[in-house]
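Hi all, a correction to my earlier message: I attached the wrong file for GxxExxY protein. Here's the right sequence:
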Amino acid sequence: MIDETYKYSDITSKIIGLAMEVHRQLGNGFQEVIYQRALEIEFRNNDISYSREHEMPVFYKNHQIGLRRVDFLIQDTISVELKAIIELQDVHLAQAINYLEAYDLEIGLLINFGAKSLQFKRLNNKKFNQKNQENPNIK
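and the right structure:
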């Protein structure tokens, strides 16, 4: 079995590099939406397939119980959650991991533009179910 981090390392590294460019240009101190718009420009300029504010269903025991918007869904497989806060905390990491599990996505990124230096975390969904990806009607 391929290690998920390795399998997605090229694209996640590219996303992180683009986020670093946005942070270099803008610095910290803006609202999250400003960084989201700037990162969208970088994705477009670098031919990265994405959906912004992508609405995803949340399931509980095979029942859809709500919808949640992920900041970016990259190539229909990678969740990218943005923050613009002074410091990432465990609660933000837990929230991003919960989203991966609820969406049944294998990999995600949590990126914080609010600190002096860009902060990011690569996230792996240990509960990822490949069978659900092969048959999207199964949840």
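Sorry for the mix-up. The beta strands are 50-60, 63-74, 78-83, 107-112, 119-124.
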